[in-house]
Structures are given as structure tokens and as C-alpha cells.
Design goal:
Thrombin, subunit H; mainly beta; about 15% helix; 1 helix; 6-stranded antiparallel β-barrel; 7 strands; about 100 residues; globular
């Protein structure tokens, strides 16, 4: 299955909220559809689990949204998340960031 959105390699700190508890992690890449996170110290979550993520774009704009685990990298423990019910203005902010970098 081909990816639907262009990905932007980017290194940002992210709060990944699992069962109401925030865990600090970092990104590998970002797209309008989702985000890949390196696993640091947070607990593993199963595929299809729902988490919340909060991160600040380089512009200073804060993004908060729900996400679903769609991929787990067994090698480094990273996870691919698909954004769920993201605010349209936040999706436009991510689109602008990705387009600017292209």
C-alpha cells in the first residue's frame, strides 16, 4: 500500500499520552496523516491503541490530537501513529510546514 501523504523528516519533542499519563518522545517524521515516534521510556502500546499527542511546530504553534497506533517497528521500538479527528486548522499548519520544506 502506497503512502498517501508526503513525509517531512523532522526532530521534535512530543508528549505521547498513554492512559492519561504523558511520556516524552521524539519524532522521526511528520505528515498530514500521522507521525512516527521513536520510543524512549514510555510503555509499549498495542497496534490499534488510541493515544493522544501534543507537540509544538517550529513556528511555535501547539498541536494536540488523538492518534491511533498503526505501525510498530520491532527493531527500535518506534511507532507510527495516524491522526484521528485533528482540527482542520492544525492539519493546515502541518500541510504548510511540509509544503514549505519540499
Amino acid at each position: 500500500m502506497a503512502r498517501q501523504s508526503q513525509r517531512l523528516p523532522i526532530d521534535l519533542y512530543v508528549n505521547k499520552i498513554v492512559n492519561g499519563v504523558p511520556h516524552l518522545t521524539r519524532t522521526r517524521d511528520l505528515s498530514r496523516e500521522g507521525i512516527f515516534l521513536h520510543r524512549l521510556l514510555e510503555p509499549r502500546v498495542p497496534r490499534d491503541a488510541h493515544v493522544a499527542v501534543e507537540f509544538e511546530l517550529p513556528s511555535g504553534e501547539l498541536i494536540w490530537t488523538e492518534a491511533e497506533v498503526v505501525y510498530q517497528d520491532a527493531g527500535n521500538g518506534g511507532v507510527g501513529l495516524r491522526f484521528k479527528d485533528m482540527a482542520p486548522r492544525d492539519r493546515r499548519r502541518i500541510d504548510a510546514l511540509v509544503a514549505e520544506a519540499a
